[in-house]
Amino acid sequence: MKKVLLIFLLVSIFARGQEANRFANEIEAIQKKYDTLLDTSKETTVFAGSSSVRIWHDLQEKFPKHQIVNAGFGGSQASDLLAYTDELILQYKPKKVFIYEGDNDISAGKDVKVILSDISQIISKIREQNQSVKIVLIAAKPSIARWNLKRDYKRLNRKFKKMSRKDADILFVDVWKPMLNGRKVKQDIFIEDGLHMNAKGYAIWYNAIKSFLE
């Protein structure tokens, strides 16, 4: 029985490693970009997470007073960010880290407890480097494409909010409510796929997030 359990654990670890490796080229591209752009004499804020972060193309322009690293990589889940915490977050020695993960996790059928465990491990790794780093958890967003999963997303967001209440250095920014029209998700804030946001959607995010930076 012990041998079977050990084999299962080894296979699971190997599978997660293989899955994370599919992002290797994208991670390398992010690193090369900021090797030339980053001013190490300035404080840095990292935005990490999935494609909702990655395709926020004017993120730096929206917050010109801050040095921003956009470390988003499309299709990622919290476990992927955990695998690349060193490359995408720690190497930039940030003073503040915004994390957007959970969206793809819920869509993939992951349990909320698993997501929270991965997020907690990411936070622990960040704090091993610097205890004073502020962590900002961005709520999982609603979308047309994944509206059928709204209960799971709302549960995850409640857990994120609870984490922030227990720890003064973990903040929670709610982008869920501003993206709703009553009890339905707004229809005009997404591109054709009904999942990723257009300029109107990112304007909502900007308004929700700006006070956490300024």
UniProtKB/TrEMBL annotation:
Domain SGNH hydrolase-type esterase: 55-204
Top-rank lineage group of the source organism: Bacteria
GO molecular function, one term: phosphatidylcholine lysophospholipase activity
Pfam families xref list: Lipase_GDSL_2 (PF13472)
Signal sequence annotation: none
Protein name per the record: G-D-S-L family lipolytic protein
Species: Maribacter algarum
